[in-house]
Specification:
The protein has about 230 residues and is of the alpha+beta class. About 35% of the residues lie in helices and about 15% in strands. It is built from four helices and seven strands. The protein has a three-stranded antiparallel sheet, with no helix packed on it. A hairpin with a 2-residue loop joins strand 1 and strand 2. Helix 1 (about 65-70) packs across helix 4 (about 150-175), helix 2 (about 70-100) packs across helix 3 (about 120-135) and helix 2 runs antiparallel to helix 4 (about 150-175).
């Protein structure tokens, strides 16, 4: 067995010769090791931050953006958990008022005026809160004018409900409107080429849009690593 160098332009390729066959047996080309991309074709940068130490507390300073950047499963978990805790807390406040005033023991007395009519226990207090918060208003449970603390709690409930709705619904709307998956329908050429354009060597590649919708004022940013 012997090895020869066969020249193709400026590159050399190693070929082997067999003494018995008398021919050239080209050696199998080495499989090119696939390196991890610095930036994926969908625009996601494959860089992870580590060893931040105490810097993670900075994420809480901009809580809204932090929630938007979270994954969908965490967004849905926080969405459900926040509403569940807020509803149970407000329903407990209505139940505490009825318990302190003694409305639970005299709710069936027609001559007695409770803070909230037809509230006998915690489930009925929870249903009253849901009817009030969701503006369902069945008319069976209602607040009376003999309960100033209930009126104050009702105002607090309205303000707190508006804040929670604006925060969570706004977060979910912005997350759904982000075109992160739009890059999945953009195709890039497998290989880039270098050619002369306007007297300068220029790196060129193709970008194709699979959708029929037009992209207006599109901008492309590239990162070159040497």
């Amino acid at each position: 067995m012997s090895a020869l160098r066969k020249k193709f332009g400026d590159d050399y390729q190693v070929v082997t010769t067999s003494s018995s066959g008398g021919g050239f047996n080209q050696a199998a080309p080495e499989k090119k090791k696939k390196r991890q991309r610095f930036v994926d074709k969908n625009g996601r940068c494959n860089v992870q931050h580590g060893n931040l130490g105490g810097e993670t507390s900075r994420y809480l300073s901009d809580l809204f953006t932090t929630l938007v950047d979270l994954k969908w499963r965490w967004n849905l978990f926080i969405f459900i958990l926040t509403y569940t805790v807020a509803w149970l807390f407000m329903a407990s406040m209505w139940w505490v008022i009825a318990f302190i005033r003694g409305d639970l023991n005299q709710a069936h007395d027609d001559k007695y005026t409770p803070c909230v009519a037809n509230v006998y226990n915690f489930p009925s207090a929870f249903l009253f809160f849901i009817e009030t918060e969701a503006t369902i208003g069945y008319g069976y449970r209602y607040i009376t004018d003999k309960c100033p603390e209930g009126i104050i709690l009702f105002l607090f409930q309205s303000i707190l409900g508006s804040i929670v709705d604006a925060f969570l619904i706004g977060c979910m709307f912005i997350k759904m409107s982000q075109p992160k998956k739009r890059a999945e329908t953009l195709m890039f050429s497998e290989h880039a080429a270098i050619s002369m354009r306007d007297g300068k060597l220029t790196l060129m590649f193709r970008v194709g849009n699979l959708r029929n919708s037009h992209m207006v004022s599109a901008q492309i940013r590239c990162k070159l690593l040497k």
